[in-house]
Structure formats: C-alpha cells, structure tokens
Write a structure and sequence with these properties.
- The relative contact order is 0.11.
- Helix 6 crosses helix 7 and helix 9 runs antiparallel to helix 12.
- This protein folds into four domains: 85 residues, Nuclear Transport Factor 2, Chain: A; 65 residues, Roll (Nuclear Transport Factor 2, Chain: A), CATH 3.10.450.40; 174 residues, Elastase, domain 1, CATH 3.10.170; 161 residues, Neutral Protease, domain 2 (Orthogonal Bundle), CATH 1.10.390.10.
- The strands form seven sheets. Strands 1-2-6-5-4-3 form a six-stranded antiparallel sheet, sandwiched between helices. A five-stranded mixed sheet has the order 16-13-12-11-17. It has a five-stranded mixed sheet with strand order 14-15-18-20-19, with helices on both faces.
- By secondary structure, it is of the alpha+beta class.
C-alpha cells in the first residue's frame, strides 16, 4: 500500500493461455470480454458443469493444480487453486478456485483466457531481461529475483510472451514485463503492497514487546509466536535497505533493533514489533490462520530506512516513499516510513513514524495474506479489491484491540488517523467521498493513474463492508442496508476474509467479489441468513451487481 500518494505482491509469475478449441460450459460462465471468461458458479448445475470441464482441462494440461488446502473455517471443506497454462507456460491472471465439501465441488470462481496463439519460444534469455530492467532503473538485481517467462494478456485483448520481474527502484516497487521477442516494455506497474520487554509507542502508550537476548543486548526478535518476527533498524542507511529488498544482501543481528535494558525508547521499533505480533494473533484467533502464508512465514519489519533530519535534502521520490509512506515489499517484509521531524508540516500536517498506526501495520501485513492466497493483481478492479481487503483487515484489527471512538488509539472506519497532527486520515470506509474516493460503482475511476485507481476505487468495496456491519444508506444510491450490527462485526469480517482469500482469482472484478462474499455468507451462516441479506444489500447499495 502507498498511503500518501495514491498508491502488491512479489513473486515472478509465468503466464500462458487457453486454446480456442476448449469448449466452456455454456450456462455457468459470463463473457467478460472477447478474450476472457469470468466464472462465478455456485448453482449446483453450474458447478457440476465446471467440475467436469476442470477435469478435462487438467487432463489436457490447460490447467494445473497449485495444491489443495483444508478449509480453516468449515470442517470437511477444501479449496483448490488451478492455474491456466498454454503450451507449458502459465497464464498471467488465468486461474480457477474450486471449493469442495467431502470431495464434492461446491463452487467455482475464476477467470480464463481464450484465443491465445502466441509462440512460447523466447528470443531473449532471463539474463537479457534482467539486464534490460537494470539498465532502465539503475537497480542491481539479486539472483533470487530472476525473471520468469510469461504469456501476458494485454489490455487491448492480445497476448505477449514476456519476462516478469519485480524490482525496487529509487522511488517505487515496480513490476516489469519485458517483451521476450523485442526487449521492449510490454507492461509496468507499481506493486507497492523470548523475553518480554516494555516500550513507549509513537503515541506515548506503553506496550509489551517480545524480545530475545543475544550478546548482552535485547533484540527485537519475537520467538514466542510460531513465526519468527524480526524488526530491523536500518539506521537511515537507504542503500543497505534497497540492497536488502532487491536480494543483494542479507540482514544479521547487527541490523536488528536493539535496546540495552529492555525498556525501549525507540517508538517506531516498539510499534512495528508489537503491532506485527498483534496482527498475527488476530489472524489466528479470528480465522485460524497461521501467519501470512498459513505456514508461519517469518515476518520482517524495517524501521528507520532513512534519517529524519535529511528530509529536506532528499529527492521527492525518496521523500514520498521512505518518509511519507509504508509498503509491503513481498516475502513477508514491511517497510515503514520515517515521517518528519517535529514541527515540520507537509499538506498542512505533521507526520509521525508510519509504524505508529495499528491499522497501517495490519494493512501492510494483509497485503502479505493476499500475496499467498488470491494474489490479486495490483491493477484496475483486482488492485482496488487488493487495497480494500488490506483496509478491511487494518480496520478489523483496530476494532479487535482498541475501543471504538474518535482520536488517537481508537478504533474507527478511518485509515491512518494515528499518524498525523492534527489528526487526519487517508481514507474513510464510512464515507469514502470525504476523501474524494467513490462510494459507488457508477463513480469509479476509469483512468490509468494509480494503476487504474486502486486506492480510490477501494472505497467502493470498503463502503460495502462498512454498510454490511453498521447499516445505513449509501450516499450515492440512497439505497438502505440492514447491517448485522457492531455486535456481530466478526461475522462480516469472516465473510469478507473467506470470499477474498478463498474464492477470488488474481484477476477478480467487483462483480466477482460480490458473488464470492455471498457464497462465503451462505457457507458460514446459511442461505437466507441475516448475514447473507446484509452482504447482498451492501453490494447492491454501492452499485455492484
């Protein structure tokens, strides 16, 4: 997430396509364009037809199973993600998600591409592609970030054989698709997603943190939870920060945030470390999820990537990314902006350490959850859903730990309100229009800025989540929603979590998110339940049908 500038996920993805000769079930799918087909099958007849088609495509090699996982919320259920392939190459964004109950298919969601005729023999090597990106960006790229060959569906409806590479540049975390025939840029877009001690947080609150003693010092290493949780203090060394994020160096104990007596005074490190642990606990207690990848992946926070006192002399790109921002860098790594010195204002506000807001920390970690589940592509509607899910988790974690109210350290439907003085926010779920974001699908941004409006358009799904809980009327449509009430907040949290992580494919649309969350509501609380009604009314109110 990128908070201040209208601002996904790492990994290198191989992409391919589906032969035009494949016949799709006529009833269960809806045509989403001349070259792709959206699937949202929950009716028994539709599901049977797609289940049969999936079996055919698995046998023919057009689909490959990524694996099947047991459902964390319903016993006996399982979820299988199936990637689309063309001539042995995976299709970027081509994916189906099949839910089963006792081995019987229950639902199928996803998106498949058709009519792909691109040759999958590249003229360039992966090393050539890496050299092209390095030449354009000036970044040195580590071996673990080597490019991977893909067939890229283009916005114009065609296909390009390309190498996908994700790299940290001076001012961004960027995904490049390099044409494997010409070396040109086919696409690029921003991908910006023990011992107990005590310490003072950014808002002067005292909290416990889990630390480890090594060589006579207390280090911000939490070994009391199933995943190791590390908080690194890069001491303003931007070059080392960038080398680490690009896979060129590894960090060691000398980089870990440390304190001599376990009474911590580095507020940025205290909050980053504590809030990472809190978010892990929320995911486990609410959804039975074991960390970002559900396998207790190490969680890494980076604070002080730059020096506060240097803020006036750095390029605007560095100011925007490393001072006035926070972002998820992939592989379980979060980077938190330094903020500005006391008394310095930008946009009329003073800016504190970005790790000082619980919803910001949880938001960034939620990008990691998306990373290892639906992997929502950080562009257009799927990117807006990616951002919305992080906002939903960030807000939900606040309500899990903090009292509802206004002001610092209170739970509310604002995002990032704990970072500035006077208190302000980046977005509102209750009233997206207050921050110039759309609250209705008819008002969505359709341009190319901000990866197609991933931050502004997130307001549509955010408002649906809010209305499903609190009820009320959407400001644009005027349509009323009978929410489940704040006392039943957990039910809507579970529905949106289930829909967004278990059912959505990487290239999901808003309409698919509606279908997925309705399926989740029926799974968890039954057809015709007050939860299903609230979710359906909420999506209708925000114009998503």
């Amino acid at each position: 997430m990128r908070f201040v500038r209208r601002l996904a996920r790492p990994a290198l993805i191989v992409v391919a396509a589906l032969s035009a000769a494949i016949l799709f079930p006529a009833h269960p799918s809806a045509q989403a364009g001349s070259d792709r087909r959206a699937v949202a099958a929950s009716d028994a007849r539709d599901v049977r037809a797609w289940d049969t088609q999936i079996t055919r495509m698995l046998r023919g090699g057009q689909l490959r199973s990524r694996g099947e996982e047991a459902d964390l919320q319903l016993e006996g259920r399982s979820h299988e993600r199936l990637d689309q392939y063309h001539n042995g190459v995976k299709v970027f964004g081509g994916e189906l998600v099949r839910q089963a109950d006792g081995g019987q298919a229950v639902s199928v969601f996803g998106l498949l591409y058709t009519g792909i005729g691109v040759d999958v023999e590249p003229a360039l090597s992966p090393r050539d592609a890496a050299a092209i990106v390095a030449g354009m960006t000036g970044a040195t790229i580590g071996p673990e970030l080597a490019p991977e060959l893909v067939v890229l569906p283009t916005d114009a409806g065609g296909y390009v054989l390309a190498y996908r590479l994700r790299v940290l540049t001076a001012d961004d975390l960027t995904v490049f698709f390099i044409d494997a025939a010409t070396g040109g840029v086919a696409l690029r877009y921003s991908d910006l997603q023990t011992t107990i001690g005590t310490g003072q947080g950014v808002q002067n609150d005292t909290k416990k943190i889990s630390t480890t003693v090594r060589n006579g010092a207390y280090l911000a290493i939490d070994l009391m939870r199933p995943p190791a949780i590390y908080t690194y203090d890069l001491k303003g060394n931007l070059a080392r920060t960038q080398f680490y994020l690009n896979g060129l160096v590894t960090l060691n104990d000398s980089d870990v945030a440390a304190d001599a007596d376990n009474q911590w005074t580095d507020t940025a490190a205290v909050d980053a470390h504590a809030y990472a642990g809190w978010t892990y606990d929320y995911l486990y207690k609410r959804f039975n999820r074991q960390g970002l990848d559900n396998r207790n992946l190490t969680m890494t926070s980076i604070v002080h990537p730059v020096k506060r006192e240097d803020w006036a002399s750095v390029p605007s790109s560095v100011l925007n990314l490393y001072y006035l921002n926070a972002f998820y860098a992939g592989r379980g790594i979060m980077v938190y902006g330094e903020g500005l010195p006391p008394g310095v204002t930008v946009s009329g506000r003073q800016w504190n350490y970005f790790s000082g807001a619980l919803d910001v920390v949880a938001h960034e970690l939620a990008h990691g959850v998306t990373d290892y589940t639906s992997d929502l592509i950080y562009r257009n509607e799927s990117g807006a859903l990616n951002e919305a899910f992080s906002d939903i988790i960030g807000t939900s974690v606040e309500y899990f730990y903090q009292q509802a109210g206004a002001g610092y350290l209170k739970a509310d439907y604002l995002l990032g309100e704990d970072l500035t003085a006077p208190s302000g926010a980046f977005r509102s779920m209750a009233n997206p229009q207050a921050y110039d974001d759309p609250d209705h699908y008819s008002k969505r941004y359709t341009g190319t800025a901000d990866n197609g409006g991933v931050h502004s358009n997130s307001g549509i799904a955010n408002n649906a989540f809010y209305l499903a809980i609190e009820g009320g009327a959407n400001r644009t449509s005027g349509l009323p929603v009978q929410g489940v009430g704040a006392a039943n907040r957990e039910k809507i949290e579970k529905v949106f979590y289930r829909g967004f992580t278990q059912f959505l494919p990487a290239n999901a649309t808003f309409s698919m998110a509606r279908a997925a969350t309705l399926q989740a509501a029926r799974d968890l609380y039954g057809t015709g339940s007050d939860v299903e009604r609230a979710v359906e009314q909420a999506w209708t109110a925000v114009g998503v049908i």
